[in-house]
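Human: I hope this is not a bother. Would you mind checking the protein record under this note? Thank you for your patience.
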Amino acid sequence: MDLILIPGFWLDGDSWSCVTAPLERAGHRVHVLTLPGLESRDADRRGITLQHHVDAVVATVDRCAEKVVLVGHSGGGAIAYAVADARPDRVARVVYVDSAPLPDGRPINDDLPVVDGEIPLPDWSEFTEGDLRDLDEAGREAFRAQALPQPTGVAYDKQVLRDECRHDVPATVVCCQFSSDVVRGWLAEGHPMAAELARIREVDLIDLPTGHWPQFTKPTELADAVLRAVERDRLRG
């Protein structure tokens, strides 16, 4: 199966480097994306919008001969959901890694501070203990060394969704900072954080207790979670 890995904010395709090998060994075709404006520190990020990122992923979907699985980390989950909206008949499943589907009309995060027209990785003090769980000092240094400024438009633009068929695309949430029990509680209570997830007809939850960047802190376990999600679709197929 074609697996399309979508990075979260401040990251390029190399952020998946410790996750891809187990997926490929399992026989999957892995497409690791570096989204527009994240090609290098010197890339021109002016004018890069959320739609540019969605379009880049859609283009990859369209190049695949069969249905795909989208794997979106953090803000990449919002992009994956928009792609499922654009191509609901081509997406077999969306795997949300410490993420969730973003509703229509909402930005991914318009609270992030803009510096010189772009959004640099904030100081660690701006993150919660839950975000940074298992990310030791060496891991933080490595992350910051490879982090790239995020295009402002991607964080601040509002999500645009058009096709209700997106709710027919199965979803798997890899629960890192918040356990599957917490997420089930949100779904039962109608919590705003799970409002869009509640509209999806088939949702699976997989626990992977760690911080917000499991591709760095628990890459083997993350790969296993993705494979578990994909196996459901292989058996269905």
Observations:
- The domain at 2-236 is CATH 3.40.50.1820 (Rossmann fold).
- The mean pLDDT is 96.
